[in-house]
Every structure is written in structure tokens, then in C-alpha cells.
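Question (not urgent): is this output format expected?
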Amino acid sequence: MELEGFNSQFFQAEAIDHCVVLRFHAGPLNEESNIEELGRSLFQLIDQHGCHRIAIDLSETSFITSSVLGKLISLHRRLHRSSGRLVLFGLQAPVESVMRRSNLYEYFRITECLETGLAWLDSTE
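Got this back:
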């Protein structure tokens, strides 16, 4: 897994052990005009960089749209098909509320912090 040359306007990507941690930039994820570009950035990690264990830090995200949730669902499905894993962590209350109302809180693996998320990604569960 090599992240050299990878760049996204939506998040910073960092390789930690055999995982990739995505730290979304501060603010809401609601720029509808940029949703397709966000999806391309996420899927590029799998398709071009071979990332199969991804942790997403949403601690700086104050709001999330259904379109962004759709991209996260697609990312989860792509990873699942390739025996990969996705974990979300650091959800702010408004984002957690949207996920619960959308019945996605149980769909995704959600942890409180990066360390717990990385431990789950590395487990054989």
C-alpha cells in the first residue's frame, strides 16, 4: 500500500501500519457539487493504491449529507467485497444523530477513537 502521489481536497490520508487513516477536513460535508469528486478520492484508495483497511476520522465534521453517506456506504461495500474493512471514529453528535436516524449506526463499525479503530481493523473478527 503506497500513498505517494495521492492527494484529496476533502481529507488527509496517512498510512499507519497496514491501515490508512483519513482525516476529513473541518466543517460540514455538504458540498453537493463535490460529492462525486469525494467518491473518486475514496475509491482511488482501493483501486489504485491497494488500501483495504481504512479508518475515517470524522471528529472535525459537523454535518454530513445523505449523498456523503451514500459514498461511505459504497466504500464499505467495495471494501467488503475485497475482504477489506472500514471503521469510522470521532463522530460529533450531529453526525452520530444522522447516522442513527438513517439506521446506519449499526451498519458501520464505529469506535470512539483511532486506537480502538485500528485494533479492530487489525483483528481477525
